[in-house]
Design brief:
Length: 229
């Protein structure tokens, strides 16, 4: 039986710093989570929007990975913060991937920035700057989540589950086609959502790939993506 092919969106990273040499970059733990679940991960580098159709065609499922802020022009706002942590090329390409994944009926698993971008693609908006959602230690967790009963997340995580937090933006207005399924009890931040209709979409605000090695629930997210979503 052929393995499920999971495309993972890549970022670009200059290595060594100040060298001018760009590498395609994605957290290894994302691809490891897919492999542990029995899938075949393929990293998709940032490309031209017109390339999205062919990329989506060759994968079975799509992971939108974490990274930069989403440019507010895509949800009808001006920039409110001083930051250079944006990539217009990445936004444009990944928005095209989302459109194609929906058109071709390919499941989407969206992580952190990816979750925010899918919300924007479907008509939602973002808080451009939030406080107290960036933990200093890459390892470990920072707060728990409240989970909506009878949701996809509730099938994978127990009440009181602790998650990590590495984001400086968050969902403001949730797109009409999505339903929130987990929140941060401290301030109500949406930590997970899923699609209401026929499209298979699961969005997670935290980074499960950093927790999956030592947390079976977070690995089950990848199992769910490969085998069920």
């Amino acid at each position: 039986m052929a393995k499920v092919i999971v495309g993972i969106t890549g970022n670009e990273k200059e290595m060594p710093a100040m060298s001018g040499i760009q590498y395609v970059a994605v957290a290894k733990d994302l691809s490891e989570g897919v492999k542990q679940a029995g899938g075949l991960p393929i990293v998709i580098p940032i490309g031209q929007p017109e390339m999205a159709k062919d990329y989506v065609y060759v994968v079975d499922k799509l992971i939108l990975s974490g990274g930069q802020n989403v440019d507010p022009r895509f949800y009808g706002q001006e920039k409110e913060i001083e930051s250079d942590d944006y990539s217009l090329a990445r936004d444009e390409f990944e928005l095209a991937l989302i459109k194609e994944a929906l058109r071709q009926k390919k499941p989407i698993f969206a992580v952190c920035r990816g979750m925010q971008l899918v919300n924007v693609a479907l008509g939602g908006s973002l808080h451009q700057s939030i406080q107290d959602h960036w933990q200093e230690d890459v390892l470990g967790t920072s707060h728990q989540i409240d989970i909506k009963p009878n949701s996809r997340v509730s099938q994978l995580f127990q009440v009181g589950t602790q998650i990590n937090s590495f984001h400086r933006q968050s969902i403001k207005e949730l797109a009409a086609d999505l339903v929130a399924t987990a929140h941060d009890p401290r301030d109500g931040t949406i930590e997970a959502y899923e699609s209401k209709g026929q499209h298979a979409i699961l969005g997670i605000q935290w980074h499960p790939e950093f927790l999956a090695k030592n947390c079976s629930s977070n690995q089950r997210l990848f199992d769910y993506l490969v085998k069920t979503l």
